[in-house]
Structures are given as structure tokens and as C-alpha cells.
Amino acid sequence: MKKECVAMLLAGGIGKRLGQLTKDMAKPAVPFGGRYRIIDFVLSNCLQSNINTVGVLTQYQPLTLHKHIGVGKPWDLDRMDDGLAILSPFTQHNGGNWYEGTADAVTKNIHYIDQFDPQYVLILSGDHIYHMDYNELLTHHKATNADVTISVMEVPWKETSRFGIIHMNTDYEITSFEEKPLKTKSNLASMGIYVFKWSVLKECLQYDHNNAYSDHDFGKDILPYMLLNQKKMCAFPFRGYWKDVGTIQSYWDAHMDLLNGQFLLQLDQKDWMTYSHDNNHPPQLITETGSVHQSLINNGCIVSGMVESSVLFENVQVGNNSIVKNSVLHPGVRVGRHVSLDRVIVQEDVIIPDYTNINVPLSDEPIVLSKEFFIETQKVGGMKS
Predict the structure, then answer these.
(1) By the 8 A CB rule, do 321 and 306 touch?
(2) Number of Cβ within a 10 Å radius of residue 222
């Protein structure tokens, strides 16, 4: 079946900077926004953009991610001839070498792309929060007749060292590219969203595969190689909301953004829905002793304390006389009585004992509370504020 465009979704990252959140699962599988996982956003973008041939490249701790994705039904990707395909390293004929980088992951799946004989290949990351119509990117790519088009946006200057930085002229043509520079004269960052002419990308991947000195990475190797060889590279400025939730701080920030009335990425947008699996929990219950202010409260929650500026995933309970502020509580969390939480992220199914008091000052990064956290706390003799 010939396709104009095939998407390759990179979803195998370790996400080291997310610490405890990615200890047992890949970064794209981390819960987000009260009822989603991070990967739901890019898959929903594919659905809304009518991109219905998607290869998902997984590697690190894939069990939770594979279970969540399934056959792609929530995103209308459960199809016979195209749809969603999970492409793990162990599917390779040579016995299952790990993917050695983002470019290597695509190289080892050239056979998957070739069966659709596409004109274009869309490279996506599975760990960003945003809404985007990929057709606008593809239209821009066609109009400029570029070999590769990179979606870009301005980021705060203090964060430029986290990204690939783009320099372009007035015609959107990229003149230079810096991968995570310590100092730079541009704050125009690559979003990790690329559309390539497949014939050009395939040639570059095959050259890179035979380069013993390469890290086999798009940002470090493929894009600089294309620039050096005078391939036509263009930028596509994106002006919507986009967040790389690659750190604990940015993950917490993105949840607080959800509670901002001016937030561009409203989860209840009817014209651009974010899809996921539905859980059959009963409606939320706010008891006579409970109160909720500017918060997202999901189904199955029972709130008997006070919740303010927080996100509660499904089936969370908050006990009498407890206060939860500026926090993110993952599914199944149980908050006891007389508990005070401020600026914390609580992992799935954690039970927080009565009279626990954890309040993180604004000057510090929010902390992640796991089952291991409370086990270690008991060993050293109790909870500290």
C-alpha cells in the first residue's frame, strides 16, 4: 500500500532527568494531565492530521508503553494494512541489537518504511506535550521543496543548552545548526519534529550507518551531515504551546500550565481532542468536608480534604483535614488524614500516612514521592517537612 507520508515515532528514550518517574517505564508512558500518558498527545496529533501509518520505535522499559498503546485503537490506528506498528529492537533478523541512537532506530526499520514507498517521512518524538496539525508542516515542506523541514520555536535563553539550536535566513532556510550549545546567538530550538524527503533521508541514513565515528543521532549526525552536503534545510516556525517534559521541573510546570485559564493547550478542545483509553471508574465525589479550587479531578476520586491548584488522576483519595496544593497525584494514590502536601508529584498507588507533612519551597525543584521514598523515610526514623 503506497503512502504519501509515513510517521516514525521515537519512543524508546530513558528519560534519566525524570528520575523516579522513569525508573520502571519509558518516558512516553509517564502519566500526564489527569487521564493521559505523554505519548497520547503525539498519537492524537497523528489522528487529527490523518497520518494513519505510524511506526512506534520502543526500547527502554517498554512493558507499560506497549500495554498502553496496544493495537492503537484509541487513535484509530488498529488497521490491517497500515495503522500502528510497534518496532522494537528484538524484531530484527540479526538477533536484536539495541538501537544505538535515534537515527539508527530508523535505519534498522528502513524495510518497514520501504513497504509503503512514501515520498515523505515524518520523524516525531513520543515525549512532548503539544497540539499540532502535521499537514501544515507538510504543506510548508512541499512549498519550499526542502530536503528536510524542522519544526522550530523560540525557547527561554537559559534553556538553549537543552536543545538543538537553529539559525535561519529570511526565507526560512537553515544556515547553521548547533546541538545543545553552551553559548549561542539564537534561541530558536528544534522541536525534534522533522519531515524528510524519504529518498534523501534514506541515503543519509545508509551513509551514517557505515560511519564508525557517528553517534547515529539525528541532531548530532544526520542534520549536520545534510548541512555540510548542502542539502536544502528549512525551518517551520511553530507558535502554539509545546513543552519538552524532560525534567521534574518541566513536568510539574506543564501540569501547572494546565490549570492556567490562558493555557493554549486546553484538554477540552472539541476541535482537537486528545485521546486515550477510558477507565470505567465512577464519577468523582467531593464529600461535605472536601473542597476543590482550580484543580483537575478525575473519575473515581474521593476528596474529603482541601485540594488547590493540583491535578488528581483517577481513583485518588484525599482524607479528612488534609491539604493538597500545587501537586500532581498519579492514579490510585491514597492521602491519609491531616496530611499537608505542597509542590510534590506522587507516583501511582502510593499510600501517604496520616499526619505526613511535605512542603517544598518555591526555590527548590518539586520532589517525587514513591513507595521507596516512604520505605527509606521509615528506616531513618520518620517524615521531615
Answers:
(1) no
(2) 26
Class of the CATH-defined domain 285-382? mainly beta
pLDDT, one tens digit per residue, over 68-78 is 999 999 999 99
SS3 state of residue 380? coil
| Cα–chain center distance at 13 | 10
Domain spans in the chain, listed from the N-terminal domain onward? 5-268, 285-382
CATH match of 5-268 with 3.90.550.10: yes
Helix (H) or strand (E) holding 96, with range, is none
d(CA 233, CA 331): 43
Torsion angles phi and psi, residue 72, rounded to 5? 85, 20
Residue matched to cell numbers 493538597: 324
Task: Return binding residues for alpha-D-glucose 1-phosphate.
Answer: 99, 164, 179-180, 190
Give the angle subtended at the CA of 12 by the CAs of 28 and 121, to the nearest 5°: 95
Instruction: Please state the pTM of the whole predicted model.
Output: 0.91
- Provide the annotated binding site: 99, 164, 179-180, 190
10-residue block means of pLDDT along the chain (385 residues)? 94 83 91 94 95 93 91 90 86 63 93 96 94 96 96 92 90 90 92 96 96 92 94 94 90 91 65 85 94 95 97 97 98 97 97 96 95 70 52
Residues 6+ apart with CB under 8 A from 314: 34, 35, 279, 281, 298, 299, 300, 301, 331, 332
Q: Determine the pLDDT at residue 278.
A: 82
Q: Are 296 and 309 spatial neighbours (Cβ–Cβ below 8 Å)?
A: no
